[in-house]
Amino acid sequence: MDLSQVYREHYRSLVRFLYRRIGDQARAEDLAQEAFVRALEHQPSQPRAWLFTVATNLARDEGRRAAVRRRHLTLIKAEADARPPEPPPDVALERREQVRRVRVALVRLAERDREALLLWEEGFSYDEIAEVLGLSRGSIGTTLARARTRLAAVLEEMKSRGEGSEEDVAR
Amino acid sequence: MSHVDEGTLHAYADGELTSRQQTEVEAHLSLCADCQARLEEARAAIGRASELLAELEPGPMHAPAWREMEERASARAREAPRRSWLKPSLAAAAMIAIAFGIGWFSRASLYDAALRPELTSSAPAAWMPAAGDKPSPQSVVRQSEARNRAIEADVPNELTLTEQAEVGEAGGRAKTEGGVDRAAQTAAAKSVPAGEAAREADRLEPPAEEQPVPVIEPAEPPADLRQRELEAAQQRRDEPQPSPALPERVQSELERSRAALSAFRPQTLTDEAKREFAVAVQLDEAAIWLGARVRTLPDLELVGAEVVPGSVIEEGVPGLPAVRLSYRDATGQSIILDQQWLGGQAGFAEPEVPAFLMKPNGQRAYRWDDEGGYRLILRGTISSDSLRALAGRLN
After folding, report:
1. Is the separation of the CB atoms in A131 and A116 below 8 Å?
2. Distances in Å between the alpha carbon of B281 and those of A121, A162, B261, B339?
3. Is A149 on the interface with B (CB under 8 A)?
4. DSSP letter at B219?
């Protein structure tokens, strides 16, 4: 498959996956571009799965850098500020809080669970998710079930406790 | 009545069950109100997760022109050209000099060369000379030439390794999809005549699992590594040579391992399958096999030592014996150190650029060739920085 076509079809999906994974859109775009440059070097036979595999590894490396975690505070605030300010102020505030809570809840998932969920949301099948994450196909259903259940449970818990602050994101 | 587990319910709701599984689940659901209720909860959780994640939508994206991606790839290729680490003519001369001086070395080279009997002039049955036998100059030359041919045929550069892994990977997925021309894949990977590739493909065992695609990137060695390598190389040159005889126990196990390995192409083996060709040894026995002092990691718990053919070591050099040391760190993480002795002669081979290897399952490897003549590979599910730090502490 022509990589330029793969780029046109999947670049946005890759950036979205990375953005949800690491929380920094600019960095997500950098990593997505890095993955495509590497694909040009390696010419994988299954480029979509290969790209997301590389992206998963890059995101894991990214997540282990303390500097990125410290930037999360600033980025989430900046991200909320950068959104088009269409709704009235009280609605915008609620939306920012919801974004922040979802980000925190996602971080509280186990790494594999989080990645499986994000890949599913990008349209990957169970077979493809298993391939990208190096898991058995039979475990994907359980992994996604755990991720979805926990995501909702953590959010409910945060709402009831009034959590989702910047300090929570920093953890 | 046993109920449907959560994972299966989610897979059913996601449409990811086989027809047979789907029929079984539906048959149960028709009889079980509890599972019906749980299925509705699963569907709600699926929808809720999608809604929540939709909140995390990135803003307007900057997508560079594809030409910019191509220019970056070209620039990177120009900055770090691939080099064949082994110059055959230089290797042949060095092999003869080394094998003459160290009798056991030819024994180890015959082990790996015997896996490709069509490349050697020795009969496979004569691959393991008795302890104390000294090889004649003529046999040393034949063995060296045979090894050289084996290395020329098998030594992978970075791209070939990736291509071969992809061929293996594609073969595995194609098998499940029902269509694969394994002979053509083998021929493509090795550039051998299709007929020979077909015969070789017939002997292949299908991979037990798909081979992950490694990602290789250049890496900077630790700052003090070079000085330590030079000091270590000097120390090794001053040390006495190890005894030439391998214990009989190790010899017989290697014989069994060699016979089993000859039926496989190492690139198609899973990690689990590759373990079949490892022989557990003591450290001093490992040094005999390696032909040099065994490099070790300080401050880590040594769990075991094995000797293996170089052809089953990922990122290793086919045709050379390898030693694998298994460690456990303070947190219980497994660390593997693979090493091969390339000869230790100055100018013997151009060292490979140090590189990190990343697998989709999160395992990382750091591979480098030191100036003392070792090919070293550190592996573990720890960060690249930690691997590099460990490399700097090698004894």
Report:
1. no
2. 49, 59, 19, 15
3. yes
4. -
**pLDDT per position in chain B (395 positions), as tens?**
689 999 999 999 999 999 999 999 999 999 999 999 999 999 999 999 999 999 898 888 888 889 989 999 888 888 765 544 444 444 444 454 444 444 444 444 444 444 444 333 333 333 333 344 444 444 433 444 444 444 344 433 333 333 333 433 433 333 333 343 444 444 444 444 444 444 444 444 444 444 445 554 545 555 555 565 556 555 655 554 444 556 676 677 766 665 655 554 444 555 665 666 778 888 888 888 787 889 999 888 899 998 887 777 777 777 678 899 999 887 788 899 999 887 644 344 455 667 777 766 667 888 888 777 888 999 888 777 788 888 888 88
Do residues A42 and A50 make contact, with C-beta atoms less than 8 angstroms apart? yes
**Is B93 an interface residue toward A (CB < 8 Å)?**
no
Closest residue by Cα to residue B394 from B218, B241, B221: B221
Cβ distance of B53 and A118 shorter than 8 Å: yes
**CA atoms within 13 A of residue B142's CA, in its CB half-sphere:** 15
Report which of B314, B366, B325, B369 is spatially closest to residue B344, judged by C-alpha positions: B369
Q: Which residues pair with B218 in a beta bridge?
A: B355
> Rounded to a whole number, what is the distance in angstroms from the first to the last CA of chain A?
42
The residue whose two tokens read 């990645």 is A115
CB-based burial label for B326 (10 Å; 0-12, 13-18, 19+): middle
B309: amino acid identity, one letter = P
Measure in Å the smallest separation between the Cα of A86 and chain B Cα atoms: 14
Tokens describing residue B218: 């250049």
Minimal CA–CA distance to A96: which of A83, A113, A109, A114? A83
Q: Considering only CA atoms, which of B365, B344, B77 is closest in space to residue B234?
A: B344
Chain B partners within 8 Å of A94 (Cβ): none
B387 touches chain A (CB under 8 A): no
Query: What are the E-state strand segments in chain B?
Result: 215-218, 279-280, 301-309, 321-328, 334-341, 355-358, 364-369, 374-380
State both tokens at A32.
Answer: 């997505």
Two structure tokens written together for B388: 């590099």
Rounded to two decimals, what is the model's pTM? 0.45
Q: Identify the CA nearest to B169 among candidates B217, B215, B208.
A: B208
| DSSP letter for each residue of B305-332 | EEEEEGGGSTTS-TTSEEEEEEEE-TTS
Question: Which of B73, B167, B360 comes nearest A41 by C-beta?
Answer: B73
